[in-house]
Amino acid sequence: MRSAVSAILSAPAPESNMSHPDYRQTAHDHAALLIMVRHLGSKLNTRNFSRLYERISKQNSFRIKDSSGSVRTISARFIKSYPIENNEWGDFQTHRRVLGLICVGECTNTQEVSELSKIHESLRSKFSGTLYDSCCLFLGLQHDGTPYVTSAVEHSPKEKQQPVLSKDQENSSISSKTHSTQAESYISPCSDAEEPRSSGISDHDSFDETLTTTNLSNITGKVVSHPSRTLYYPSLDKCVTLETDLQDFVSSLFWVLESKRLVSIGNIDKEKQPFLCAPFERKDLIGMDLESRTHRKRCIGRWRKQVGDLSLQSGLIAEALEHYQAAADVLRPANDWLWLAGAFEGLCAASVTLLYPHLRRPAAIQRNGSLTGEGFNGRIRSNSSGAGVRSLPPDIDTHQHFLKNRLKFKHALGPDEVIEKYHEAVVHYSKYRNAGVIETEASIKAVHVLIEQRKYLSAAEFLQNVVFINLHLSDEEKIQRFTALSELYNQLGFKRKSSFFRRVSAMRCVAPMTTLQPNWTLCYQLLFESISGFKLSLDPGVLSHEHANGWPALQVQILQELTGTARRLGNVPLAIRHASLLVHLLLIQQQQAGAAAILSSQEQAEMAKQLEQLSQRSETPLHPGPLALENGTIIPPVSLTLLPKIVSFKLQPPGAVLAAQRLVPEDEINSGPFLFTPIQFGSFRKQPTRKTQVEMDFQWVEGDRCEVIMQVINPSAYELRVSNMQLLTEDVEFEPETTSVILPPTLDPKTTAPTPVTLSGIPRKPGLLKIVGYSMTVLGLKNHCKLKSAMPFMGSSFFSIHVVPALPRLSVQIASPNHNLITTSESQSVSAASSLQLYAGQSTECSLSLVNTSDASVESFDLELVHANRLSSNQVFSVSIDNLKAQLPWQPGTAVSVTVYVQGASDFLMPAMNDCLTNVHSADDSTSLPSLSGPPSIFSRLSSHTGVTGSPRNKAKRAESLVSVRSGASSVRSGGSSNLRATECHSNSHIAPRTVAALLKLQYSGGPGYAAGFCRSTSVALTVEILPSVIITKWDVLPAETPSHCYLVLDILNATQYEMELQYSSCKHIAIEAQDTCRIPVPVERCPLVKLAHVYTENDLNPEQQLEKIAKICCEHISSLVELKWSISGVSQTSCTSTADGTEYNSPRPIKGKASLSSLRIAPSMLDLLHIPPIQLEIELNQETWSAERAEFVCSVGDVLDVTVNLFNALSKFLGPLNLQIAVYQDLQNGTFHRRLDTRLLTIGSDRALVGKMDPNSSYKHNCGIIFFTPGNYKLDVVCSLQISTQHREAKFNMSYDPIHEQHIWKFVPSVEIIVSEP
């Protein structure tokens, strides 16, 4: 390709007398009449002349009736200028002759008309050798030539304005002149654009007479003396008859052309025809044998070829084909290669007119106007649509169209034959050094035909031939040639080759070794148009980030040249825009996989520095939007989205204490059942294939500071300063906050960690906020970076988030008695937290302070205690907010407080172990308090017979080991009984404290947000560590001295590290050492029968349920009567106190607490001693009623002791069966009982009785006698039990006492002591 450029720029062949090629010519131009339209004077501005010329050039096809009445289609080609040198080649190809001249000017008086007419005459004289007719068209005068006054009455547009010829011009005639010499310069070498041929046709005829061969001489004389005509129009908008006048003007040209054609046809049959020659052939006439046979053939062949040209221009294609074929047949034997090539070209032109009647004309190419103009005058237009567009309709085959024409035109060529003839013609043209222009134009015409046939590779071969044709061209014409080649390659689809020639043309405009002044404007324009061929776009959004598209080195080079050219033009904003794209392109190429670095790190740093210097040179800051140039070109904005590179972009939800939540009305809770349907409404709608937004699942609040966290990386090898970073939003008023960051250079991309950058702002209005990107200033440029470009992997163009109306804000603080205040940040889930340490049974208070720190009032407030452990925390924490709600609304700045009560709740029982003995009641699972319960500490004689395991023998032994505990002023130490110590489940080991946590959930609202149904919620974390204080390791129930009372015997463990004082009744205290255990008997009034009557009377309760209810009632009865108050005197709790001078000191305060027995597990064996029995027992000894107040009963040996037992059912329900037993035994006072007294006493009657049923409020009496044989101390027990089953009732009279078969056991309390003495 570079060798082709060298061929163009090398020294040309000498003696080339034709001007530059016409790169716009097509095969259809062979049949067109060439008419030049010139601009006269300076009064008519260029814009109006262009409008008028455009209107004229649209009328390029005319229908004219010939002398035989047939209608011919005559084509006209209008141009603005034409070189004289090309006009001299009219004998070789008649379509190169200027046949008509139309001069356009504007004047207001006859003097100006005369001046413009002189200029018109001078133009006529230059082209007088070929002109058939000329016309002057003047604007600004009435149709009769009088001055045009704007206030005059306007003619109707429908009224036909007939132009009137001026008297001066009517008498003038066309003076015959010879061809101008080659020394004359052409008017202007610039050729302008022509519009595609129009289909508008007029049937008007200006000649009605019949033309015959007898009056050819009259016609010829008429042509020579034909006067020039002048047309007047008031203004450009009032040229109503312009098209009709053009029809008349072209008709006059046609008749002259027709007359010449007829004359030429008449000369064919003559023996000697004039010798036609090309301009460069005239010098060869000297010494030529004019009488030779070969010369005569040349004359005939050339004359037939010219007749073919005239016939083609006259609209007679068939005759033209016949003359061209005849000329070729004559010229080929004569070896007249130049004219043979011309005949072939004419034959191809006529055939192309038949095959492709609507072949498009290529786009115009500007020459001098662009080279010398200021600004972007006459921008080169690309006609890329011409490539691949066929002139025939798509449903018509070219081959079938050719066969149809071949029947009518037998000498017409086919599509392939046309290309062959063109190729042959080009070969013959190449034999002549002075025919380079003709050869170039023929090749270009073949290229257009091949484009129509879509044979682009063959067309490229013709273009390659054009490249190597060496012509004598000026520097301007060389620029034009490069540009024309670029346009043709663009039509072929050779984009890169097209851009190559356009770039060469651009560099030629500013080459230092040319005769032209550097034209940086045209250079930039050509460079700008070449970027698409290198697969480079000025829109950074089109550039691919994944893989290279195009040629990176060429793209970098063209951008550098564009930047430098813009700087030479003095357009700093344009240079900044291209330099920004260059920096952005280098960053894209850097991150592409497998792409080699085009510039080194140092060169890239220099480019960035130059960009920063350019931005500093700019007088006004460059707006990041599109840049509009003077010629209307829009340069897209360039955002440096990779400087820095965004790794992540995350919208931060507000802190849990500031997040907006939806208020749920009570009437909307459980509003209805859930209904499922498989029908998907709207499923038939078209779903978008690509997400356009990412909607957040949280909301921002109006007036609150909102944040977005970006992770950025500096991909460059130089330090990057980024300033004025802020968010870009839409649809909602948003007040962004700016931030700046300095990013260090990246040495190793694999080890470089991203830098977090926080962008914040405050929304000022509610609604749907769209975050579309961010703006920043980097390298001195302000960039608006859209997320769609900065983060293409995100898959959406923006983030959307709802902004709810403004809500109030509360500052929350909580203070504990020991002044422990912990306030956390608002971004966490809680706004404040407090941690306490209490002993079990200790209580304290915390103060919760609330301050309204916002501008909105708090209109709604609610507080909920959320328990982490629903049983334990509910017993530990309590709060009431009735006083707070009464103070609503809270105005801005209002401070309120509420008290939170904290209780060190515990069950005060020893934790159970796997090796404990029976009656171990395990604690509840994690939903209850941590269990401190253990087995009953003291073995009861009447143990549980429903929930214990073991044999009756073991239970009997336990009953025999019962130690009677008498009521006294002091308690019994745990060391007093060796049996108790031996049967303990737990040693006095360390017991770990437990932790109870809860949340105070505050929900409040107010202001516009409350009206919209939103609120805020915050939490206060409360944590209490409960240390063990008093622990009940063992317990039992023993009978008291009176039937209405009993003793609750407790083994108390001091689990603290300090000495403890324990108060277990109103007048009883005891001091317990650290980690020591003490046994205390607590007198308790037995539970009255009134509380238990309903349990016994319920019929739907089974025995187990009945026992559970009785145990629950008895436990509540004990906990209401017994309260253990403790105080630790060995340690003091400090409280913080502030003085007036600001100092703080600690004041000692003793620790006190209470231990509750609400968690005490009551065994079934203890129940009958804890409550008044429903069967009331009464004992009569020797007809004397025995009472508990009596100490003892005395009798003698041998006397009969009459024992009468009275049973009374105190319930309103029958009971039975009942088993009554009277037992006498001896207490040895050492923990053992002697019950085998068969040798010491005799029972008269039965000591047992079975009562089948006792009706409500009924009584039963049983009597027996006892005779003692030996003196001593005896005890008598009366026991009544309720049996579980009545089966084998008769057998039970002979059963020994076995409590396993009994449900309830009621004993007369206390036992009757009998002293038997000697008589």
Description of the structure:
- With 1319 residues, the chain is of the alpha+beta class.
- Among the domains are: 2-10 and 26-268, no CATH class; 641-804, Immunoglobulin-like; 810-907 and 996-1024, Immunoglobulins (Immunoglobulin-like); 917-940 and 975-990 and 1029-1155, no CATH class; 1173-1317, Sandwich (Immunoglobulin-like), CATH 2.60.40.10.
- The protein is 27% helix and 26% strand.
- The chain is built from 30 helices and 48 strands.
- The strands form 10 sheets. Strands 39, 41, 42, 44, 46, 47 and 48 form a 7-stranded mixed β-sheet that branches.
- The longest helix has 27 residues, at 242-268.
- It is rod-shaped and about 200 Å long.
- Residues 1-16, 151-227, 363-396, 681-690, 819-827, 913-989, 1135-1140 and 1285-1301 have low confidence and may be disordered.
- Its main location: Golgi.
- This is Trafficking protein particle complex subunit 9.
- Residues 668-780 form the Trs120/TRAPPC9 first Ig-like domain.
Shape: rod-shaped
Structural class by sheet pairing and helices:
alpha+beta
Question: Using DSSP, what is the number of strands?
Answer: 48
Instruction: Tell me the strand percentage band.
Output: 25-35%
Tell me the distance between the termini.
156 Å
- In the predicted model, the low-confidence regions spanning at least 5 consecutive residues are 1-16, 151-227, 363-396, 681-690, 819-827, 913-989, 1135-1140, 1285-1301
Radius of gyration: 61 Å
Mean pLDDT: 77
Work out the helix count: 30
Describe the sheet with the most strands.
7 strands, mixed
Portion of residues within helices = 25-40%
